[in-house]
């Protein structure tokens, strides 16, 4: 493995902002929080995929995958990250290396690919992603990117995160390291205000960022940069001028938040946009940090006034659903920040969470789950499909909320299912998103299709005989029997 990649991985493993790491010995810290990948677990699992997930929502740059075409094919458009302007991020670029490139090296092909992108599309930057094959044959993408930047005058950013180095969350952080090394701090905004913030680890899935932005606009708070949902390259480049940062998912990009605090004195906190109560607490914390950094004190009063209006409106809208959802049991199969943030949202609607997965959750995530669900919270580390099916079939849960890969288990059990992961087509963030989540759960639970699919098929009812049975012989008369 490249020494530079090894150094970055070790730096990520020893992340000092992670409370879990703070309790480890020096020897344990070096082991990190990763584990070896299982064969075939690349989709949604490898470090390359994690880096691309983290950076692809930067909408105006070209994302070039240096490797076989399958790497780009498997990772392209696997999230519904929306854009309000540029669409270049939805174009798949790959060097499509072949057997000869493996033998002779793929650096020349990479340089030519960058030149073709710059000449045809003229993007503000090109992000080049290392993959397993090109890392194993020794292609030096840092050197190629440096030469291409000098030659074409366009920033060409190496993202050295080959899939074999670890799982997706490690790739998220290595993508963040590329931004810290080559992008953040390289440009200046036209102007700054005392109300400028960064949002880190938010990917604008199904347009969720757009449900939060109007709330911040109402307070006069400006999102200087979102890393990386609906972001433009220049916004990430001048994100170091923000006054405060909000971390949405510490599992993916806590290294960016921590290093920006160290380098540029930008304080940060971890919050959630899911659920009415958590959304209100997030707005309060944003106001607190901005006031701490010099914003006027009246921001606090305006924040409380906005929260009062929005909470009243949201609770009124979900009140009509509460009687229908009260006591319904939910099995939540997700991970990371959603393992606890969505729990709070479901409880506000009167739903009971009978289990939540923690496979991709940190120690802090688990502590928050216990705060919400109690010390006896049913936290599922790695539930097998057979166990999920049994739990649903035995009616221990009325509905399952999960990603698309688990939906067929619920459908086989003839139980309602709702997509809560990155492939979803509805935005559930903020006050408006909470109302939408309740509406969608109600639709799923009371959809008449479930009554129909649970009926026995005609061949599963009492069978109708195909051959008419012959009549039994009539009994002999009593007198004849006596004779």
Can you offer a commentary on this structure?
The chain contains 22 helices and 13 strands. With 483 residues, it is an alpha/beta fold. It has three domains: 3-182, Nitrogenase molybdenum iron protein domain (Rossmann fold, 3-Layer(aba) Sandwich); 196-315, Rossmann fold, CATH 3.40.50.12380; 326-424, Nitrogenase molybdenum iron protein domain (Rossmann fold), CATH 3.40.50.1980. The strands form three sheets. It has a five-stranded parallel sheet. Strands 2-1-3-4 form a four-stranded parallel sheet, with helices on both faces. Strands 6-5-7-8 form a four-stranded parallel sheet, with helices on both faces. It is globular, with a radius of gyration of 28 Å. The relative contact order is 0.09. Residues 46-445 form the Nitrogenase/oxidoreductase component domain. Keywords: Nitrogen fixation.
Named CATH topology of the largest domain: Rossmann fold
CATH architectural name of the largest domain = 3-Layer(aba) Sandwich
Query: What is the overall silhouette?
Result: globular
Would you report the number of β strands? 13
Q: Give the % helix.
A: 40-55%
CATH level 1 class label of the largest domain: Alpha Beta
Range of strand content: 5-15%
Q: Looking across the biggest beta sheet, what order are the strands in?
A: 11-10-9-12-13
Low-confidence stretches: none
How does the helix and strand content classify structurally? alpha/beta
Distance between the termini: 106 Å
User: What average pLDDT do the residues reach?
Assistant: 85
Helices, by number, come to 22
């Amino acid at each position: 493995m490249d020494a530079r990649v090894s150094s970055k991985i070790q730096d990520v493993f020893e992340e000092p902002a992670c409370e879990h790491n703070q309790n480890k010995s020096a020897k344990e810290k070096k082991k990190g929080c990763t584990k070896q990948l299982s064969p075939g677990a690349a989709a949604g699992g490898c470090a390359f995929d994690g880096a691309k997930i983290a950076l692809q929502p930067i909408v105006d740059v070209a994302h070039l995958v240096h490797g076989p075409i399958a790497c780009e094919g498997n990772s392209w458009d696997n999230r519904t990250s929306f854009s309000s302007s540029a669409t270049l991020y939805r174009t798949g670029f790959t060097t499509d290396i072949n057997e000869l490139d493996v033998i002779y090296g793929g650096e020349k092909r990479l340089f030519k690919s960058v030149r073709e992108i710059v000449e045809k599309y003229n993007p503000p930057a090109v992000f080049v992603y290392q993959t397993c094959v090109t890392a194993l044959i020794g292609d030096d993408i840092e050197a190629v990117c440096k030469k291409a930047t000098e030659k074409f005058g366009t920033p060409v950013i190496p993202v050295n995160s080959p899939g074999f180095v670890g799982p997706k969350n490690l790739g998220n952080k290595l993508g963040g390291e590329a931004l810290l090394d080559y992008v953040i701090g390289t440009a200046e905004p036209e102007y700054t205000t005392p109300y400028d913030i960064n949002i880190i680890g938010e990917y604008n899935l199904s347009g969720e960022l757009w449900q939060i932005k109007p709330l911040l606009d109402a307070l006069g708070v400006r999102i200087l940069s979102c890393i990386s949902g609906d972001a433009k390259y220049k916004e990430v480049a001048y994100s170091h001028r923000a006054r405060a940062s909000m971390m949405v998912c510490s599992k993916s990009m806590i290294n960016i938040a921590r290093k920006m605090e160290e380098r540029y004195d930008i304080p940060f906190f971890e919050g959630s946009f899911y659920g009415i109560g958590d959304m209100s607490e997030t707005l309060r914390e944003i106001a607190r940090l901005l006031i701490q950094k010099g914003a006027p004190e009246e921001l606090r009063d305006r924040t409380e006034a906005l929260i009062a209006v929005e909470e009243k409106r949201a609770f009124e809208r979900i009140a009509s659903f509460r009687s229908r959802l009260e006591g319904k049991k939910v099995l939540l199969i997700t991970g990371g920040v959603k393992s606890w943030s969505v729990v709070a949202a479901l409880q506000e609607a009167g739903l009971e969470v009978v289990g939540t997965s923690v496979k991709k959750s940190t120690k802090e995530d688990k502590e928050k789950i216990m705060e919400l669900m109690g010390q006896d919270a049913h936290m599922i580390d790695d539930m097998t499909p057979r166990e999920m099916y049994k739990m649903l079939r035995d009616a221990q849960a009325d509905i399952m909320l999960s990603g698309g890969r688990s939906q067929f288990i619920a459908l086989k059990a003839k139980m309602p299912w709702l997509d809560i992961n990155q492939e979803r087509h509805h935005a559930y963030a903020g006050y408006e998103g909470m109302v939408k989540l309740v509406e969608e759960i109600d639709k799923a639970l009371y959809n008449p299709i479930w009554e129909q699919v649970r009926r026995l098929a005609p061949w599963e009812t009492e069978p109708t005989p195909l051959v008419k049975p012959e009549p039994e012989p009539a009994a002999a008369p009593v007198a004849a029997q006596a004779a």
